Amino acid sequence: MCFGRFTRCVGYKLLILALLSIVANVLLYFPNGETRFASENRLGKYVECLHGILGGGILVLIPAIVFIVLQKDGCYGYENCGKGCVVLCSVVASLIGLLGSGYCIIISALGLSYGPYCYTRLGRNWIYPFTESSGGYLLDYNRWAECQEPRNIVQWNITLFSILLVLGAIEFILCFIQIINGVLSGLYGACCRHEEV
């Protein structure tokens, strides 16, 4: 039984998802393509958590690279004890990916629940106008007009935090599946070696 091809496929998928997470997080820093809000430190606290760059990006790139590099020739390509080491590396890398994607999921959900940091016409100040709604503002489109600057910040944040939430969830599922794949591969390899003895 060969698990290497599946692992390499997961690696390429994680690579793409990690790069998309990084791009989505970078876009959060520049509402509507404007740089002045980042330079004036007028971004929300959950935007600055680097959940897409660090969590869903770099920490997921680690297992992606491990899966692609270690899985040679479609079926590990290593002999005896080397295969066990590769399986162990695969599981450890998957755990790192789980941590990163889990961080991305949690911060994205909090960012959606908390709402954007914006200049409001009501208070004439920079505040979080939707904190008391616990995410209820997401479907209350009439309240979105409370945010005057950055323009369309509510839609911007909802779109990008939602994308990061979905990307993080897919990464989490793939890393979890790879842990199961690694454990089954290790058990199968141990059974095969035991039968050979």
UniProtKB/TrEMBL annotation:
<feature type="transmembrane region" description="Helical">
    <location>
        <begin position="91"/>
        <end position="114"/>
    </location>
</feature>
<keyword id="KW-0812">Transmembrane</keyword>
<feature type="transmembrane region" description="Helical">
    <location>
        <begin position="158"/>
        <end position="180"/>
    </location>
</feature>
<keyword id="KW-1133">Transmembrane helix</keyword>
<dbReference type="GO" id="GO:0016020">
    <property type="term" value="C:membrane"/>
</dbReference>
<dbReference type="Pfam" id="PF05805">
    <property type="entry name" value="L6_membrane"/>
</dbReference>
<protein>
    <submittedName>
        <fullName>Transmembrane 4 L6 family member 1</fullName>
    </submittedName>
</protein>
<keyword id="KW-0472">Membrane</keyword>
<feature type="transmembrane region" description="Helical">
    <location>
        <begin position="12"/>
        <end position="30"/>
    </location>
</feature>
<feature type="transmembrane region" description="Helical">
    <location>
        <begin position="50"/>
        <end position="70"/>
    </location>
</feature>
<dbReference type="InterPro" id="IPR008661">
    <property type="entry name" value="L6_membrane"/>
</dbReference>
<comment type="similarity">
    <text>Belongs to the L6 tetraspanin family.</text>
</comment>
